[in-house]
Design a protein that fits this description.
Layout: H1 9-17, E1 21-27, H2 31-42, E2 47-50, E3 66-67, H3 71-75, H4 79-95, E4 100-109, H5 114-129, E5 138-140, H6 142-148, E6 159-168, H7 170-183, E7 187-189, E8 192-200, E9 203-211, E10 217-227, H8 233-239, E11 252-263, E12 272-275, E13 284-289, E14 292-296, E15 300-301, H9 313-326, E16 338-347, E17 364-368, E18 374-378, H10 384-397, H11 436-440, E19 448-452, E20 455-458, H12 459-468, H13 474-481, H14 484-487, H15 489-507, H16 514-523
Parallel strand pairs: 1-2, 1-10, 2-7, 4-12, 10-18
Antiparallel strand pairs: 3-6, 4-6, 5-6, 8-9, 9-10, 11-14, 11-15, 11-16, 12-13, 13-14, 17-18, 19-20
Bound molecules: flavin-adenine dinucleotide.
């Protein structure tokens, strides 16, 4: 087994400064931008991707973490969308089995007709999935429903339906995309922010990127510039405005989604629970993930675009109230270990009044501006690869890139690809796949900073994050290489000093911990 590549920052920044023209320069290191970077690199294009903060710092680390075919889109009759998502679900599970696996779901029924009613829809889902199906849908008796969901509220239970979907570790999948793209020759950099676009004769020819660690600006030239900045795409589109012209109407209507994390004792077992229709018509999930249970989510229109959005009290109340209806032991506010908020980039139809986010498009949109700036947003994590193919297709049809055949990433194992343990178990070395050997060879493999059952966070994991996963700050390690901030915010705060000491040793500079401690306090505090 070859050792993983070191991704030291200094040589990467030196490459950024080289006077050259890239085929593609991508702005934004979430699922969308990283997917484009990998696809383009595999097709042999020269690729630069810059991320202003850390990979997956935006929406891509705050998802429910379901690789799903979108069973609810089936209810809306959108068969094409479901088909695409089922194909993409299969690709994620095949290419990154160490961080993405199938997961059984149970929908408990509390009205006599519910199991049969939802069972019919889910059988149609199985039929659409065909050979890509992950397991057959089953109607469950009351007894069997209680066996599979030991934490379910038994009062009034009329049975259940079991079906299968996928689950993943979103931030770690993003890192694997970044690292695999880098291994294919792409230059991917975090903490590099695009501050303006270069335009020549009305055409975008590159951008100015600021290294946020040193404040140094670099001019980048590219044949095709891709704006993949999620809910922030309108700010980059605004950089593409003719001097003196008025701002364009925004194309994104952000919608906030909150998740609460509680201990597994509220929902033991290995099955996820799905309520297809809460009292106000939303969907509620209780998903076992990395040793805890994730409850969510909400869908609240939001116009400010904070990098760390905060939850509303009504959102917390909604999740706890709905969880209390279906769980025999209801979690209270005091039981919440972490609360995190993500912004969905919903694409606005031109005449939308911005009021009802549920009516907005959950599909992605790719537009090529008159200047040639290519903007992509919307969609979902599950379909990042299909979105990347669309982006490259549009760049080619617009003449920004020469035509090269696609379909190159559908069967492309990501770095470390190897069968893993179920993702509902506590986080541990299994998330490193075939790189476990390299991880264990690092100093501190048996020094656990935090332990949870079979897993936890070791000194070697922090060193691995600095050497191979481009971690630059304490938050990068505790929020996205390890997911401790998302699992238990107070524990993440307690680990900050130990992680800082190891990172300082690796990176040769002192680390700041106060900012991270304040963030951990935010993730641990309910409104
Ligand atoms: C609550 C919630 C639950 C979800 N659950 C699921 C799910 O279970 N399954 C699923 O498939 N999908 C889910 N999604 C959707 C999915 O998470 C998103 O569609 C996806 O993560 C969007 O990725 P992105 O790369 O477009 O945006 P982002 O991840 O936000 O990435 C954009 C990046 O651009 C960077 N950036 C911004 N401006 C600049 C600049 N000037 N220079 C450089 N970089 C810049 C940002 O820092 C950010 O990292 C969920 C979304 C939410 C909000």
């Amino acid at each position: 087994m070859s050792a993983p590549a070191r991704l030291d920052r200094a040589p990467l920044i030196a490459r950024l400064r080289e006077a050259r023209e890239w085929d593609l320069a991508i702005i934004g290191g979430g699922a969308t931008g990283l997917g484009v970077a990998l696809d383009a690199a595999v097709r042999g294009f020269s690729v630069l991707l810059v991320e202003s903060d850390d990979f997956a710092k935006g929406t891509s680390s705050r998802a429910t973490k379901l690789a799903h075919g979108g069973v609810r889109y089936l209810a809306q009759g959108d068969v094409a969308l479901v088909h695409e998502a089922l194909r993409e679900r299969a690709a994620i599970l095949a290419n990154a089995p160490h961080v993405a696996q199938r997961l059984p779901f149970v929908m408990p029924g509390y009205r006599w007709w519910e199991p049969a009613f939802y069972g019919v829809g889910l059988k149609a889902y199985d039929a659409l999935a065909g050979a890509r199906g992950l397991g057959a849908t089953e109607l469950l008796s009351v007894v069997r429903t209680r066996e599979l969901l030991p934490g379910v509220q038994p009062r009034g239970l009329s049975g259940g339906v079991k079906y299968w979907d996928g689950q993943f570790d979103d931030a770690r999948l993003a890192l694997l995309l970044a690292r695999t793209a880098a291994a294919r020759g792409a230059l991917v950099l975090n903490r590099c922010e695009v501050v303006s676009l270069h335009r020549e004769h009305g055409k975008v020819r590159g951008f100015v990127v600021r290294d946020r660690e040193t404040g140094t600006d670099t001019d980048v030239r590219a044949r095709c510039v891709v704006n993949a900045t999620g809910v922030w795409v309108d700010a980059v589109r605004d950089m593409d405005r003719d001097p003196g012209s008025s701002p364009r109407p925004p194309m994104v209507a952000p919608s906030q989604g909150v998740h609460l994390v509680v201990d597994r004792r509220f929902m033991p077992g290995s099955h996820a629970l799905l309520v297809p229709k809460t009292r106000d018509g939303r969907v509620l999930f209780a998903v076992p993930w990395l040793g805890k249970t994730v409850l969510g989510t909400t869908d609240t229109p939001r116009n400010d675009l904070s990098r760390e959005p905060t939850p509303f009290a009504e959102e917390v109340e909604f999740i706890l109230r709905e969880a209390a209806r279906v769980l025999s032991t209801a979690p209270t506010r005091a039981d919440v270990r972490s609360i995190w908020v993500g912004l969905r980039p919903l694409v606005k139809p031109p005449s939308d009044d911005g009021e009802n986010t549920k009516a907005l498009s959950r599909e992605h949109t790719v537009i090529v501006g008159r200047s040639g700036l290519l903007t992509v947003t919307g969609g979902k994590w599950t379909t990042y690869r299909a979105m990347a193919e669309d982006v490259l297709g549009r760049a080619m049809s617009a003449g920004l890139l020469e035509t090269r055949p696609g379909g190159v990433t559908e069967r492309l194992p990501l770095i470390g690809s190897a069968p893993g343990r179920p993702l509902h178990e506590p986080p541990g070395e299994h998330l490193y796949g075939s790189e476990i050997g390299a991880l264990r060879a690092l100093p501190g493999a048996d020094r656990w900073l935090w332990r949870d059952g079979s897993g936890g966070l070791s000194e070697a994991m922090v060193r691995f994050a600095a050497r191979h996963e481009m971690a630059r700050e304490v938050e990068d390690v505790l929020a996205r290489r390890s997911r401790l901030l998302f699992l238990d915010a107070a524990e993440a705060g307690r680990q900050a000093d130990a992680v800082a000491a190891i990172l300082a040793d690796e990176l040769g500079r002192p680390m700041v911990v106060d900012e991270f401690k304040a963030l951990a306090a935010q993730y641990g505090r309910l409104p």
